[in-house]
Amino acid sequence: MAYNENTAKRVQDALSGKKGIFEKKMFGGLCFLLDGKMICGVNQDNILFRVNPEEGESLSKKSGVSQMVHNGRAMNGFLYVEKEEYKTDKDLEDWLERSITFVESLPKKK
Predict the structure, then answer these.
(1) What are the backbone dihedrals phi and psi of residue 43, each rounded to the nearest 5 degrees, phi first?
(2) Widest CA span of the chain, in angstroms?
(3) CA 73, 71, 94, 47: dihedral to nearest 10 degrees?
């Protein structure tokens, strides 16, 4: 699996100390999960963030952000974010916090 190891390290560092986080190789990259629910995934060129679907469409209109498309269908709530949009640690932390907030609102996995 090919993913950007530098970006993965930045995500690891940003999530260090947060309980319930683990990593899993999925979707051709490295995904980060909170209590079994995906927060984000690092691939070669960008990060796939999971966000509140109610925000997904409006966020996807930002430069460098696009909805994930699977089998020809846009997956509202899953956004590919290009590296220019998470260039600074603060930018990355903002995206991660948005994802974590949404994932924490989901029902517990059984």
Answers:
(1) -120, -160
(2) 38
(3) -150
How many CB atoms are closer than 10 A to CB 108? 7
| CB proximity list for 84: less than 8 A, separation 6 or greater | 64
pTM score over 0.85: yes
Structural domain boundaries in the chain: 5-62+77-105
Rounded to the nearest integer, the mean pLDDT of the chain is: 93
Single-letter amino acid, residue 40: C
**CATH 2.40.10 correct for 5-62+77-105:** no
63 near 69, Cβ under 8 Å? no
Q: How far apart are CA 60 and CA 77, in angstroms?
A: 9
Task: Tell me what percent of the residues of the chain surpass a pLDDT of 90.
Answer: 79
Does residue 96 contact residue 32 with C-beta atoms inside 8 Å?
no
**Residue 48's closest CA among 8, 13, 9, 106?**
8
- Please report, as a single letter, which amino acid is at residue 43: N
